[in-house]
Each structure stands twice: as structure tokens, then as C-alpha cells.
Amino acid sequence: MGGYNAWAEEKEAEVFDDFLPIMAQKLGEQGLMEELCKGFRLLADPQANTITLKSLKENVKLLGLEGMTDDELQAMIAEGDFDGDGALNEREFYILMLRLSPSLMIEAQKWLEDALAEELGCFMEEVY
């Protein structure tokens, strides 16, 4: 999986804007999920309903990834392929998109910590 990571490290020098948090803020949770759905359908093989190497290769121009090799594209898929079938299903795609958005992950961590603190606070009040 070094192919994709090597490509990503090489691209680090270029400006990368994480638009997912901006989309989440503008569209809300439901709107963001709808946009991710559209993105998945755009990239997925319609017969298999998964993102395959072939379907990803057909969309490299659209994604601005023209310089990537097949190995690098396959490594991108492997990054999110939890079931090991060599393709991304919808769930794997959503998880990968959210995982690759550091800002959203930090915000999600904060929400989780706040929810746990609130839950523990309620529990502690019940105990005492």
C-alpha cells in the first residue's frame, strides 16, 4: 500500500483544502450524506454497485488524479476496503471519506467526548 502513501506524501507540498467540513457545515448532516451518496454513485460501477479499480480509472480525470498508476489507485481502494473484496461498497466509501477529513474527525472526537462527559455527569449525579 506504499503506492498511494508515496503519492500522497509527494502531493503534500501542494495545497490541499479539506472541503468536507465546509460541506458539513453548509449542508448539515443529512445534506452531507446526500452529497457523499452522489459522489459514490458517480464513482461506482453501476452493475457491481461498488467502486472498483476499473470504475476509479474511468474517473481519474474528474478527480484530478491523472498521474496515478493502477497500483496507486488500487492502494487508494485498499485503504478503505474493510471486507477485503478489492472494491469499496457505500459504507466503506463513507467511512473512508470521513476518515480522510481530519477536521471532521477532530470535531467528531469532541462531540464524543462531550457526550461521554454529559453521560458520566448524569451517572455521577444519580450515584450521589
Sequence of secondary-structure elements: HHHHHHH
Structural class, judged by helices and strands? Answer: mainly alpha
Alpha-carbon Rg, integer: 18 Å
Number of strands: 0
Shape: elongated
How far is the N terminus from the C terminus? 52 Å
Give the mean pLDDT: 75
How does this structure look, described?
- There is one protein chain.
- The protein is mostly helical and 128 residues long.
- 70% of the residues lie in helices and 0% in strands.
- The protein has seven helices and no strands.
- It has helices at residues 2-11, 20-43, 53-57, 60-63, 70-80, 90-99, 102-127.
- Helix 1 (2-11) packs across helix 5 and helix 2 (20-43) runs antiparallel to helix 6 (90-99).
- It is elongated.
- The model is unreliable at 11-16 (pLDDT under 50).
Keywords:
128 residues; 0% strand; 7 helices; 70% helix; elongated; mainly alpha
Question: What is shown here, in short?
Answer:
By secondary structure, the protein is an all-alpha fold. 70% of the residues lie in helices and 0% in strands.
Secondary-structure topology with pairs:
Layout: H1 2-11, H2 20-43, H3 53-57, H4 60-63, H5 70-80, H6 90-99, H7 102-127
